[in-house]
Amino acid sequence: MPQKPRKRAKTSEVGVRDRLLDAADRLFYREGVRAVGIDRVLAEADAAKASLYQHFGCKDQLVASYLERRTGDARASIEAYLADTPPSQRGLKFFDWVVEWAESKDFRGCPLQHTVSELIDPAHPARAIAHGQREWFTERFREWTTAAGVKDAKATARALVVLFDGAVAGSEVDGPQRASDARWMAKKLLAG
Amino acid sequence: MPQKPRKRAKTSEVGVRDRLLDAADRLFYREGVRAVGIDRVLAEADAAKASLYQHFGCKDQLVASYLERRTGDARASIEAYLADTPPSQRGLKFFDWVVEWAESKDFRGCPLQHTVSELIDPAHPARAIAHGQREWFTERFREWTTAAGVKDAKATARALVVLFDGAVAGSEVDGPQRASDARWMAKKLLAG
DNA sequence: TTGACAATAGACCGATCTGTCTATATTGTC
DNA sequence: GACAATATAGACAGATCGGTCTATTGTCAA
Q: Looking at the predicted structure, is the pLDDT value of residue B8 above 90?
């Protein structure tokens, strides 16, 4: 009988792959992907080195998987946050989400920006993830500005991307005030 | 006779300290301060290891000195760029400078943002440099918005900081279009 | 019980990292 | 020429890096 689902249990209730991703997420986001070595991830995940290479093949792929899950979770979080907001007001409401993120205890800036700036190889698998997330953002901003009925919706959407990047990058060095500043301007922009 | 200026000549016409800083600037900015090791800097500068530690003491100090010179040069470049522009229009003109920077061949994003995100130690000497440059920017924006005569000059100045950060961070991943987008919004903001 | 599979533990490899050290060469001043 | 200062060249140390490997343990299904 070929390959039943094969239950996963072991001593812990969560699989080693998820533990590795959890550990990588915490450490890579907090300290950067170059500053954190494999051994640190293994210790944090309480896992064996062979498990990491069995599931991810190499560190670069672990980095890409870390980013992939981060961005997926972010999309889900944003969509849930905006679900009860009418489409015409989602553009502004999104910046409430950004403010909350910037004010959260573990906020450390944008994981995409950090990773792209640390890994200059244009063929690195993490770059494709980052690119995909950027496109998703661009598309959402287009939707929101169109729904808001502003004139020049495309240019406004591009401007909101700039505001978002500025909010996140600025909050990392100056504190969450920058996110509020971005929201202030987004409100102006979406009013007209 | 204690300590005459003591001419510096040697085989090359530029001192080893400047050669080290030039090499560090190129490599650190292009690839990041963690990705580039001491040996790479020494080879690029054609200098000896003892010279580096004689002049800078440790790598962290070299990083701080690299940032210090970068930011000093940036200030001079900006001030020269704006010298012929009347104060009331400097806020917008500044974003022309940003666009030109983002379009330049070697543009790789903001060295301050990169370094701060790579070195999480709050006591790292490079952080003080970054903080100083951020304050300088904030002060200039305050001047420019005040001179432009916009109402709510302080809030507008903070918004321009966000636009600047977004222009630079966005241009790094999406290309210089983001800097133009930021300029577009700055124009709107400074018009009213 | 047995065998397949997934996980752990950790030795090991070669490379690279920051930093220290000794030894030598070059330079300008006396 | 002698001296002090500054530079170079490079061995060396101790730690860490990513990655491979062997050996062992624990779990489940037949």
A: no
Residue pLDDT, tens place only, A1-46:
222 223 333 344 799 999 999 999 999 999 999 999 999 999 999 9
Whole-number Å distance between alpha carbons of A153 and B131: 36
Q: What is the pLDDT of residues B74-118, one digit of tens each?
A: 999 999 999 999 999 999 999 999 999 999 999 999 999 999 999
Q: Which of A165, A171, A190 to mutate to test the interface with B (most CBs of B within 10 A)?
A: A165
Mean pLDDT of A177-183: 98
Phi then psi for residue A6, to 5 deg, are 55, 90
Against a cut of 0.90, is the pTM above it? Answer: yes
Q: What is the end-to-end Cα distance of chain A in Å, rounded?
A: 65
Q: Which helix (H) or strand (E) holds A131?
A: helix A125-148
| Contact between chains at A182 and B170 (C-beta distance less than 8 A) | no
Average pLDDT for A60-85: 98
List b or e across A105-121, with b for residues whose CB sees 16 or more CB atoms inside 10 angstroms: eebbbbbbbbbbbbbee
| Cβ-nearest to A155 among B31, B172, B184 | B184
Q: What is the DSSP string of A38-103?
A: HHHHHHHHT--HHHHHHHHSSHHHHHHHHHHHHHHHHHHHHHHHHTTS-GGGHHHHHHHHHHHHHH
Find tokens 């998987």 and name the residue: A65
Q: Write out the two tokens for A19.
A: 């533990």
How far in angstroms lies nucleotide D15's C1' from the CA of residue B87?
Answer: 55
Cα–Cα distance for residue pair B27/A17, rounded to 1 Å: 36
Identity of the amino acid at A93: K
Buried b / exposed e along A154-178 (16+ C-beta atoms within 10 A) = ebbbbbbbbbbbbbbbbbbbbebbb
For residue B189, give the nearest of A114, A168, A185 by CB distance: A185
Cβ pair A190, A135 in contact under 8 A = no
**The predicted structure's pLDDT at residue B13:** 74
- Measured from the Cβ of residue A122, the count of other Cβ atoms closer than 10 Å reads 7
Contact B180, B103 (CB under 8 A): no
